[in-house]
Amino acid sequence: MLVTYSRIEPHELYHVSRGGFLGGAGRVLVFLNFPTALMAIAVLALVTDRLRARWSALVALVLCLVVLVPGVVDQEDLDAKWINALPALGVVIVAVLTIWAVLRTGTGGAARASGDGARIALVAALTLVALPWIFAEVGVYIGDVPLLERVFRSKQVYEGHASVHLGEHHGLQGLLLVVTALLLSRELGRMRRARLRTALAVYLSVLIPYGIGNMANDGWQEQIVERGWTSWTFPDVLRPDLTWIWAITVAASAAIYLLFFRRI
Question: Which of 44, 76, 186, 230 has its CA 20 to 30 A from that of 83?
Answer without folding.
Answer: 44
